[in-house]
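Supplementary Note 3. Input sequence used for the single-chain structure prediction.
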Amino acid sequence: MALNRRDFLKALPLAYCSAAYGDALKKTKKPNILVVLVDDMGYSDLGCYGSEISTPNIDKLAGEGVRFRKFYNTARCCPTRASLLTGQYQHSVGMGWMTASDLGTDAYQGELNDKCITIAEGLKPSGYTSYMLGKWHVTFSNNMDKDGDKSSWPLQRGFDHFYGHLTGGGSYYNTPTMTRDNKRIELKDGEYLTDRVAEEAAEYIDNHFEKNQNNPMFMYLAFYAPHRPLQVPDKYLKKYQGKYMIGWDELRKRRFKKQKQIGLFDESYKLSPRDPRVPAWKDIPDNEKKLWDKRMAAYAGQIDCMDYNLGKVLDKLKEKGELDNTLIMFLSDNGACAESAGKGNIETIGKPGDNESYKINWANASDTPFRKYKKDTYEGGITTPLIVRWPKKVGNKGGYTDEFGHVIDILPTCLDAGGAEYPSKYKGNLINKTDGISLMPAFKGGSMPRRPIYWEHEANRAVRYGKWKLVSPAKDKKPYAGPWYLYDLEKDPTELNDISEKYPKLKKKMIELWDSWAKKNGVYPLDNSGWRPKIKKSVR
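The predicted structure, written as discrete structure tokens, is reproduced below.
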């Protein structure tokens, strides 16, 4: 029916209001949130952080977002995941060590306790549908069984869907504890974990925006790569074979040079010396160099493959018109892994069933320019890239921020972005206050509040306050507490010069800070007794 002029004029305000309301909805639409965590990746292993490894999708995120020069994790798999998910230091949520043992105290029970919320639980009141994919690793080992207590499985901790593995890993082809939601599944013969996790993530995104168009999405995508064992499809391994015949000494120099060329570091950074436990490449017998080359080629291939698969997820977001409405944060759970594993069989490296690692020799290069590795509280163990893309909020696109944060800041940032409040109670339980703060000011080019940040893992201790950092590497025998070393990270960011004798009062004050934090969080007693002794101590 045609409208006359008077009816048309009457309808105009209503039409205008409807259009304005629709525009307002678009303007106030909550962002999707994608947190991507990789496993055991060194600081310099991405192209946009100095590497020769091909990571075009991650580099594109960096070019369209902001890179943190310094961001911190907890130095180990389980504790980092616990802190990232809950916004608290790992000890206060029960994950002071690993999932392999319950040491009989609240801080070391081996899984998330009921004094915390996860990001998924925190975002639920704000209307988010949450998905977890990949490595979970915050459930006590005995409860990972399909008939075990599921109270700390992903769906019981706020996620709506889960596809991945509850364990720390073990294989890319026959990964134990593979689970969909609450049901145990298995990878089919020949299926590669990194591929499958990304494919499922893309499918979840597809289904989400078909069926839940009004609900924002939170996705926690935790790749197992590039954690050992060195298992990777041939096409990725062969792409890099021969490239590492230059050796680790030359690789460290080239990466450090690139880091300076791309503006990541200034002249205050000095390349730390080669680890004294690593021989010079020139001293490696010629008949062993191809073996070492293949180890690093497999590792590089795992990262290349991870980047390719992350691209599938980003492409799906773009296809759905949601990429620019998604806050993306990419980081690693700890520094490079120096653990030694495998039999050194050059024929089987990269293949299913092989258990090879790239060892301390290449880990030293992965963590360029820093000292030490996963488990350690020197910068090489706890520093990770953090790349943030969110066109609506991120300033200095393609640049860097000198502000630093910690994985305890991820939950507060997600809640801030999603318009959610951190609760004092959840499901009838009192919830600890969050230890973290929102990173939003740093995204916008602003400054973060000054605060101390703390570490402890297997009696390796540290505290950073402003430019000062105090570090104590663990001893092998009781009481396990080693001496403290003080560094000025503005003048000495790679921790080469201990200045504790020059500043005894500052050292004393920072020790007191750390001790107070440790007592509050149930860190004591320090324990560096080793994996097997700790498993024997388990009370369940």
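The chain has 14 helices and 17 strands. The chain has one domain: 32-451.
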